[in-house]
Amino acid sequence: MQQADALVASGMRDAGYQYLIVQECIAPGRNAAGELVADGKRFPHGLKFLADYIHARGLLAGIYTDVGPNTCFNDPKYQGSYDHENQDARTFAAWGFDLVEVDYCNLPANHTGKELYARMANGIRKTGRPMLLYICSWGHEQPWEWGQSIAQVWRTDQDISWEKNHCDWTKIVGNFESNARHSVFTGPNSWNDPDMLEVGVPGINATEARTHFLMWAISAAPLWVGTDVSTLDGETRAILMNAEVIAVDQDPLGAGPRKVSEDAPGVEIWAKPLRSKTSGEQAVLLLNLTDLQANAEVRWSDLGLQETATVRDLSTHKDLGEFLRRFATDLPPHGSTLVRVSGKFSWKQSPVYEGEWPGNERKGNTKLVNCGECSSGYAVTMAAQADSTASTLIFRKMDVPEEGIYNVTLFYARSAGGEQPVQIQINDTQATTIKLGLRAYGWESFPAQLHAGENRIQVRFAGKETVWIDALRLSR
Questions:
Q1: Do 219 and 269 fall within a single domain?
Q2: Sheet containing 318-324: order of strands
Q3: Which of 103, 193, 251, 470 is flagged as catalytic?
Q4: How far apart are CA 240 and CA 167, in angstroms?
Q5: Closest by alpha carbon to 415, among 476, 468, 357?
């Protein structure tokens, strides 16, 4: 209740911090009907009262459980949801919660987390109440590969800290880098979570806290605040409520980050496109992970931009002006700056649209597979179904700045059984057929009339064998 009031009074709710999550130590037991019984000492008015209190302040309420019979807290033990998934989902809905976090402790033998998370997702659907599902498997079982069909958020690594009121800078960096390896799976309603923010927690200085927040923002990571918001100092509040940095995190494209250069060990440039891959706007994080002051430089050619671009410092809210070919700045140890670079897209660096990106649409007999030769390590396999119905992969968010004829290259792997015909449909035009050759890895190009703004390209396969679709590349 105190945290709910503080989120409102501090202005954090209005800045976008909408969820308040009750995490751990919820229900020590169940009644005769198997329903969760909340801890009466910790929640003297009950959980529905608490959810209602949170809602009355314009916030959303989150609750916590576990895939096992008990949660992670050992003494005393609290109830997990194993073999009670449907029942607990009904209870959470009846209490009025909007988010369910499911931890990974005490995984029962002969079960996978994927299976048990799917049970909870099914239970949530049955309630009819829209509750966001947060998979907290600490990256076990690679949830980024399958989470899109079950949940909206999943953890990609271990907790940053197990200690109360202490965190470690090296673990923050480790989780950022680990999370970035899966950035291809970041997109709307498909979010990689590198763990909660430690901004405001002892163990890191103000420079490190600011860098931590900027790393999470460019990662499109969920911004879970992991400190007492009723006692925030001015510096911590300024970091957490920087509207321009939050806007980068919440950009509607939802792109994950990529490391574009590292001119010296530990001096890194990370970037992600804003709005679309060809918008000419990018968020760029200049990052110094070393223990010494360093100069960091970003080149427009590394971003796929033409020779001139303007730069705005999002940390200080200052327009820095127009720069030719590059921008550089000095950074303190563990320091960083996040800038918005606005220029004109250069077709010298053709955008690539991965088949596995969760913003695409897959129909029929398709599945995600590991593919060592593919551009991001994955492909989408397509095969005709038993009734010969075609399988479909629709590439979305293929934005271009102006109408015209573009060149599209389809990259594929392991086409089997001779030439395989696939049908290509550009937006709502008549589909055409191209043939994929018999090879371990190959590509076929074709022209496409695209309109300004968003386009979609549908790949349809009804052959007798299987094709692996890697990606599309767009060029002029």
A1: no
A2: 258-264, 267-273, 281-288, 336-345, 305-313, 318-324
A3: 103
A4: 17
A5: 468
Give the list of residues 6+ apart from residue 268 with CB closer than 8 angstroms, or none: 259, 261, 262, 285, 287, 289, 296
What is residue 18's three-state secondary structure?
coil
Residue 228 falls in the annotated catalytic set? no
- Give the residue from 442, 257, 470 showing the smallest Cα distance to 378: 470
The two beta strands, 29-30 and 378-383, are unpaired
Judge whether 122 and 86 are in contact, CB under 8 Å.
yes
- Note whether 186 and 303 are same-domain residues: no
Q: Mark whether 331 and 399 lie in a shared domain.
A: no
Q: Which two tokens stand for residue 276?
A: 């679309």
Q: Are residues 81 and 65 in contact, defined by beta-carbon separation less than 8 angstroms?
A: yes
User: 16: pLDDT confidence band, cut at 50, 70 and 90?
Assistant: very high
Question: Exposed, middle or buried, 129 (CB in 10 Å: 0-12/13-18/19+)?
Answer: middle
Residues 409, 337 share a domain: no
| Residue range 97-119: mean pLDDT, rounded | 98
Given 249, 282, 311, the domain boundary residue is: 249
Q: Which residues pair with 446 in a beta bridge?
A: 408
Side chain identity at residue 290, one-letter code: T
Amino acid in the structure at residue 102? V
**Backbone torsions φ then ψ of 177, nearest 5 degrees:** -65, -40
Last residue of one domain, picked from the residues 249, 283, 304: 249
Residues 93, 421: Cα–Cα separation, whole Å: 48
* pLDDT category of residue 432 using cuts at 50, 70 and 90: very high
Q: Which of 39, 52, 159, 168 is catalytic?
A: 159
Question: Are residue 223 and residue 357 in the same domain, yes or no?
Answer: no
Task: Quote the number of domains for the chain.
Answer: 3
User: Both tokens of residue 323?
Assistant: 């720069």
Cα–Cα distance, 473 to 466 (Å, whole number): 21
Q: Are residues 297 and 315 in the same domain?
A: yes
- Does 333 share its domain with 406? no
Query: pLDDT-derived band of residue 381, with 50, 70 and 90 as boundaries?
Result: very high
**Whether residues 148 and 176 fall in one domain:** yes
What is the rounded distance in angstroms from the CA atom of residue 342 to the CA atom of residue 273? 10
Query: Is 159 marked active-site?
Result: yes
How do strand 36-37 and strand 267-273 relate by DSSP bridges?
unpaired
